[in-house]
Design a protein that fits this description.
The chain has 74 residues and is mostly helical. It is built from three helices and no strands.
Length: 74
Amino acid sequence: MQDSPRAAQLLTEYGLHCLTCFFREFDTLEMGAKVHGMTDDELDNMIKEINSQLKKEWKEQEQKKSKSKITNSK
């Protein structure tokens, strides 16, 4: 999650404190969500939101790398 602080933040916003939870090493995201009373729809929405955020962050990282390569090649 250190690669995507926003994803970690989203988990917390959904009530999952996975980064500090002892069970993070044993449970899946789905198991943790169920333990915290999330419905299947809530879990699906959370995963979609996290995936969307990850795609956005990865795209931004790739853009930064591309700009850096252009700047360094001059």
